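so ive been stuck on this for like two days lol. basically i have the seq below and the ligand is zinc ion, smiles is in there too. i just want the complex predicted, nothing fancy, no docking runs or whatever. if the output looks off dont worry ill sanity check it later, just need somthing to start from for the group meeting slides
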Amino acid sequence: MTAAVVELAPWRHERGVLYSPALTELGLAAGSTTRPLGSMGGSATPSHDALHARAALAASLGFDGVVRVTQVHGSGVVHADAPFASPWPRADAVWTERVGVLLGVTAADCVPVLVAEAGGTRIGAAHAGWEGTTRGVARRLVAALRAEGAAPSGMVASLGPSVGPCCYSVGDERAQMVRERLGAAGGRALARRDGVTTFDLWTANVEQLRDEGVGRIEVSGICTRCGGANTWSRRSGDVGLLNLAFIGRRA
Ligand SMILES: [Zn+2]
């Protein structure tokens, strides 16, 4: 197995946005929004409000718009040249090699996984909740980039804010499904404490990225529920209100 470098690096807070240190180092606009910038999608937000919030974010980062997909808690990966017209494709990961294209995935407690080639132009974003994680969406995103000629060892991946193992308990049925879908890796991501089973989405996604040979993996370690970063979290009652994780290379 390739010896990936895995580091814990809290994303840096600046005017309502949390930025990934590892991806910022590559010159990319990469991070996640928090509550003060408004909900970036979701059932509880009028769609024109979310559209305005995303447009304002894109403009503040120096982009014309945000590429969005209709997230379905699966493992589908699509390529984008520019923001999709409505209806957006149904997928949970999106990638591009284009400069000036900002990719976005919405999440409250699900893990946003941002990936970039350190010495190339390909970038991608995935949305990995328990469904996407157990269906291997992060793995499939890296595989899609590899299929286009990107070497995983030269990739940098970062896991953004999401519900952490501190706050994510699962019932027996879901725990069983995690074991069935992920095998031994699923077992390693589950823990039993005080009669409660927790699922560590960060560990499960790091394992997938490492297995795919990604050279450098950053984990923000910010829990959307208890991490104090002012992020939307369903587990705090913000149902249907979403942060937007983004990655783009400025023109
Ligand atoms: Zn927590």
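The helical segments are 21-25, 47-61, 130-134, 137-147, 172-182, 184-189, 201-211. The domain at 5-248 is CATH 3.60.140.10 (CNF1/YfiH-like putative cysteine hydrolases).
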